[in-house]
Fold:
Amino acid sequence: MNWRIKPLDAILASAEKKSLARTLGAFQLTMLGVGAVIGTGIFVLTAEAAQKAGPGMMLSFIIAGAVCAVTALCYAELAAMVPVSGSAYTYSYAVLGELVAWVVGWALILEYAVAASAVAVGWSNYFVPLVQHSFDIHIPIYLAKGYFAGGFINLPAVAIATLVISLLVLGTRESATVNAILVCIKVAALVLFIALSLPVVKMENFHPFAPLGALGVGGAAASIFFAYVGFDAVSTAAEETKNPQRNMPIGLIGSLLICTVFYLLVAAGAVGSIGAQPVFDAAGHAFEPGTAEIFNACQNPAKAVTLVCSEEPLAHVLRQLGWDKMSRLIGLAAFLALPSVILMMIFGQTRIFFSMARDRLLPDVLTRIHGRFNTPHVVTLVTGVGVVLAAAFFPVGKLADLSNGGTLAAFFAVALGVMILRKTNPERKRPFRTPFVWVVGPLALIGCVVLFSLLPIFTILVFFCWAAFGLLVYALYGYRRSALATPETKPLTPKLS
Structure:
């Protein structure tokens, strides 16, 4: 097995030869984190979480958030120590070796690229009813749903993904500025929802709290984990951050805290105002979210008004409360703001690929920097093709679950890496130290393993098949071309084009 490790000093030295400019501060990083996290998970997947856990989805948010919190503390230490692009991939390379780093980098494709596709589909779910209710424009289902979601192609999802990709090619700072504006719109929408829903909360809507028991709450936590996917995307911007030793921990931890508070308040408003009980079949078994069975069951007018049957749950809640115009504002906010999540997901993916290509594990062309815009345009366009294809044909729930598998694998590697480095390199300067690392680290590891085991069996199988395919690619291509393959081979210096 190949355990060759790229020393931290070598990683930092190769980063000095890069062409990515440091333009981002603490506020922009925090906004990038909030922009990446608050999105499809709360705007769209709330309904799927309710189908799995009922009102207990509030506990699911807490469980998923707790796993992310301990992991964020681990990320903050490594991001401050190694302020370069690459996130968990780069950290694994320095601590666990090239083979593990490759597997982590390959898994991150599931996190970032697949998540971007999921958010694009979630955006489409708000866009289609928005134009229908506002302008009486009906987009036929075969153009609004992917082939594997009951239609043919999801054109709105394709359109928004293409627009975001174009923006990322134009520049990092420009993207971050647009993102900050979109984040403000998104936060304002959630504040509006909270203000309208919390005052009409009824305690009886929280009973039964966990109709499907602990497994239902755990399964929802594994799925709703997608709501937190993206906070680690902040760490992929380390190489473009001013004073990263200070600003990276602020961006990582600050964005996660802000998002967790919003999630709990929004979930309380949605559950308490109209209820969130699952839909059952005649035999008393809960339908599996995202299946044809629950879709058919939701065609029943009596079921159609429930939270679990809505593809735009927050707007649906306000409509049920009689706030029709406000529900349109929520839909408009999702329409405007969800692209910020797509932006951060694709941003993170391109920086992972960029780092892997710089280490010669992927083709050299992926490191090319645009001569005018100073962005890695080739890798952005390549990533964009994959995002667009997935968004065009797959449903949001399946994409979200696939994304969670890759995310949990990366989180596990980061938590393990922090503890190993504390033992193997205790003298290295740590601008930020994970507090109580021998408690926080193991908690992160256990949380990742438990949530991964609660994912759908299909998702787990896809993850391991994806990892096996990645190992094949590494064996046939990356292993011999690696910058660490021979003493004469050096990391690639990005070129302008």
About this structure: DSSP finds 20 helices and no strands in the chain. The radius of gyration is 22 Å. The CA atoms of residues 298 and 304 lie 5 Å apart.
